[in-house]
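Lecture 7, part B: from sequences to assemblies.

Below are the input chains for today's worked example.
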Amino acid sequence: MNTPDQSPLTSHESPSYSPLGYPTNLLAPGQTYETVNKTIAEIPLSHAPMSWRFGFFVAFLLLMMFLVAITWLFAKGVGIWGVNIPVAWGFAIVNFVWWVGIAHAGTFISAILLLLFQHWRTAINRFTEAMTLFAVACAGLMPLLHLGRPWVFYWLFPYPDTMGVWPQFRSPLVWDVFAVGTYFTISLLFWYLGLVPDLATVRDRARKLWQKKVYGFFALGWRNSASHWQRHQVAYLLLAGLATPLVLSVHSVVSFDFSVALVPGWHSTIFPPYFVAGAIYSGFEMSLNIVIPVRKIYHLEHLITERYLNNMANIMLATGMIVAYGYFIEAFMAWYSGDIFERYMMMNRAFGPYGWVFWTLMLFNVLVPQALWSARIRRNTVALFIVALFINAGMWIERFVIVITSLNRDFTPSAWHMFSPTRWDWMTLFGSVGLFLTLQFLFIRLVPMISISETRELVAEREKATIK
Amino acid sequence: MSSPTLLAQLADVMQKFPAARWCIWDPLNRDNLNANEGLCDFSKAKVVVALDSDFLYTHPYALRYARDFSNARRTIDAGGARMNRFYAAEPTPTITGSNADHRVAVSAQDILSLTQIIASNLGIGTRPTGEVDNKDWVEAVVRDLNANRGAGVIIAGETQPPEVHALVSQINMKLGNNGVTISPVPPLALPANRIGFRKLVDEMRGGTVELLIVLGGNPRYDAPADFDFAAASEKVKLRVHHSVYFNETSRHSHWHIPALHFLESWSDTRAFDGSVSIVQPLIEPMYAGTSAHEILEALTGQSPRTSYEIVHTRWQTENPVPDFEAKWRRALSDGIVRELAAPSFPNHGESPALAASVSPPAEVQRTEVRRSRLELLFRPDVSVRDGRYANNGWLQELPRQFSKLVWDNAALISPQLAKREELENGAIVDLTFRDRTIQAPVWIQPGQAENSVTMPLGYGREVAGRVGRNVGFNAYALRTADAFWSGDGLTIRKNGARHSFVSTQQHHDVHGPRGILHDGTFEEFVSNPHFAQEKENHPSIGETLYNPKEYPYKGYKWGMVVDLNVCIGCHACTIACQAENNIPVVGKQQVAVHREMHWIRVDTYYSGAADDPEFTHQPVPCMHCENAPCELVCPVGATVHDDEGLNLQVYNRCVGTRYCSNNCPYKVRRFNFLEYNNGLSPTEKLVKNPDVTVRSRGVMEKCTYCIQRINAARINAELEKRTIGDGDIVPACAQVCPVEAIVFGNMNDTRSRVAQLKRSPLNYWMLGELNTRPRTSYFAKLRNRNAALVRSD
Amino acid sequence: MSQPYGLLAEFSNHEDLLRAAETAYAAGFRKMDAFAPFPVEGLPEALGKKTRLPLLVLIGGIIGGVGAYYMEWYANAVSYVINIGGRPIHSWPAFIPITFELTVLAAGLTAFFFSLGLSGLPRPHHPLFNVPEFERASQDRFFLCIETRDPNFNRDQTRAFLQGLSPLSIAEVPE
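Predicted structure of the full complex, as structure tokens:
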């Protein structure tokens, strides 16, 4: 067990700051290969702390609730939810878009920051990649649950059907299948490829035979050979290069679900960039919500230094401003278009029966994040955690506003109706959080949660710098 | 009681049992009209004035009236543009009033004063007993009636007292309408020994009635509250009820005899205008039952015969002609008897003063309506009538006119009253009337007269079956003989409780120029026939990114026109579609979450003053857009176009993403959120149309233009080696439309009715701006305004 | 047991390893490999290793993209032609998103599987794992292995050569 007393690094000096007040350290002083190996690789090989057990228990309970909700859903049909005509899309789609958004930080951090040589990604990329995978898994479930006839979901895939029918490739929902499917696959490969050398480390440090066997199996016989590393690096870089446009495309495609439709409030060309910014926003917010507690529980402060948190907060602030601009331009365009439907949509969104939801969104997603201008808040993990939590909820509310308040009053006033969620809607939402957290806890428990090899590189680089 | 054979049988019974008496009880009777009943010819009327009359909907001759009335409003005709002008005064909005060019909301008891003022202005010596507020309206009516002598109809409803009807008769006479637009109704002879319902109940209470046979009806439920029918009937030694339904009366009878449905047995019947038809069964009886003919036959002790034998013999005896069989068959095939005399009977009773059967004598002092006092109106419910259809799920789920409420009745109150008493929709109030109190939830109905509260009858049934039991409140509990249709002196008190109503249309305001409704005045149309199309804003066919010639639709090109100008808003299309297309009834809870399944709905929009608006009805089926937004977004191609332009829904392929519904700007798609067709009994399965798929859970559905009928016509045409002719295909909605507002056909056939209508300048596309290019188009609604009444604001 | 697999020299840091690799390459050794707990910049080049992976990924991507567009075109414009909302049968703009996604997917799958496949992975066992010290290759030590099958390999001379690189230790890798 790695406790502060055992680690020579816990009494690390306070991080240094740049002239602009940003912390500069990516790694606390005094780190060696062995301390890095030990801190990270010992976690999967030793017993779980109580806090982990408690957290896992709670997450597992939520997961079981999810199971109940899904079972009842499959038994009865989507009518157990609050969906109706005209609001034919409800929580399932809101949750889908929310989860897909959350899934964006991982690949953004891993791929785009890798290509930009932002070394501050090292301590968090594994984490956020895993988060991406689990969030995409939650997201991918949602459209499946959403279907009226979930047992024929595979009709959305192109396969040689005996009836000679094919999917209809003009539908954004088919694009979604490919976008989310590709995103999940590429993220998984990217994550696993990065993980292989670390699994080899765990294999080589494992003391019990079964641990050696299991980790050995997943390490694929990795030998750290220069030629392995060469291909690994090339593949990793290429995957990063491929994932970069993918990150931008996935939420764009998800936004097409809305912008291709003609519903006022959906049919908008600003959607792709605004969705992508929102996705990165929500991805970072969820990363902070996960990283901050884990960093505390596993005493990883010397690996996940304040610099990381600070940079993530900065990105959140930047993307948050883009999102706020998106809200503003939506309202502006509704007015500027002079279109009766768009104008009414905007008035209804802000001052209609769901107006309070809209203003909650403004509070959570626009107002609260302004606190991040303060370096003190960015450095205060508790404050940062709370701000991230607000944005987390805010991003869900944003999708609620987009989906529900656009549909509930569209073109034909005679068909206008309200949507009210049922308990099954809420169980599906919180149950999916349970699935996400359960997977996250298992990940923390079983897999090196920070890239050991990349951290060793940081050590090597610093050694080199010290030598020089 | 309009079957000649049955009346003749009854006369035999009366003859055989001299001490027997018989009585007619109809809770919706027309006794107030008595001798003043007239037959109106709306096809010749240029000016129509309705005084609390629902002649387009609840009147026994409503179908004919609606057809004639609407034909007189079709502006495009060989004879050029013409349109009647319709004035209505009524206390509560009705289908009829909603079609008026100038409607005023007047309390039921002010109708008399209103009629008197009109009469005196027309030079009939009568002294108005009260004042009314609608001077402008009265002046306009009088001027128009005077200007159109012999071409006007003034008609009052059965809910108005005999004085009003007497005056109306005088007015029509004075204007020279009698014999032109008004003709007498042929009298109906009734057997002797008939007594009034009040007398019957008195005798029952006195214990002099030993055997009571009730044929149909439900007096235990719908008799006036002050008669105390229940107590009186307990004094009868033997009570027998013959009825299709087991209802409250059956429950309290010694014997209940299941009756055959009229579609299961032979009979004959007489229409309001005196024409007679033979009733033929459509199916073998589903359950063992007897007809009323067989019951009366048994009473006279003859050997048991079938209804067919009874009816046929009666007609044969009445018509001893050699070619009787041929004439009988012709009558059956025509559906109306032209060449034969209906069965008659010798011992006619004296024409009884029917009004006396229920109401107190007319000379009883009527209390003046004082402004502060509320009046109570009893009206048949638009769906369940007097309660007879309470157990019919289709009708329970059919949105009621205006309020669009389902599965409920509501005490309708005016917005002004709601404000005064601080009531909102669903608030439960204590209604006290003539010392009786019931609790009822209120619904605020714009267009309601300020101090009138409407109580729809027919609800609160205790013995009605699974569907109808305990739905709504029983307004009969307040209905007394002296306040049969209306009465003043109601007190209303909010009691704090709430009822949750379910309405399918919550927004009656069209919210600006959205391109949903185009309406205007007749004058506007005459000066610029294309005014409605100029309001429309759809791009021309050339302005498209697509190749406009990619889908030429060279063969049949199906299309529909819905004429808003003649649509009266009766909702018959909705029910017809439900029956034809196996549309499930989903129940109040499902409708409460907006999952009603009707493929064609009738929207009602309000315009003008919020408290006293004008009404426009708009039936909305699938538009079958050529550029269908729903199809584009379906991931599996479950909704696609065929080469005749139908927007098809492939149930088997649908996975239920519901994206199509989101992208449908008309919101005509319906989704099976749950399994709505589970656990059907064998009888319920018989309700399903075998030509139409029964949809299961998780699939989308919508109007198909009755594709099963299109295909049946196609098969017939192919067998006969011809093309489908105009009129070969009539969708269910068009088939039942009493005013022929819905026309369907091949748009490529230039001579077809639909193609001709599509060329009309009134033709427009709903939401045309979206360039969905709907195949269903509308005719703009016109109102024939009297310039003197057009509000200057 | 005839020939060993090779000789394994252990170093304490990557600079030493890099220098050793360069020296060995200069000395004419080719069948050799170096092992480090992280990718050492310049090491593959020092050992004369090259990879064709980028070209393969490019080919994979092209196949994915062309295949995707072909699939969409075939499905919606050839095999199952249906009038969808009056839109053209060959609605090419609508076919772009999936073309892009499948390009990325195919390229990504190529990168992943070929990076492992070309490295001969997965391979659960390897002679190097027989050397107990080798498990530190994944932790904090750096190794250079000259294989027996190198033409210049000679058990004693090569050991002496490696000794000259001042490693921490030298071990013989059993076959």
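Note for the exam: Residues 327 and 532 of chain B are 52 Å apart (CA to CA). Keep this in mind when comparing with the next example.
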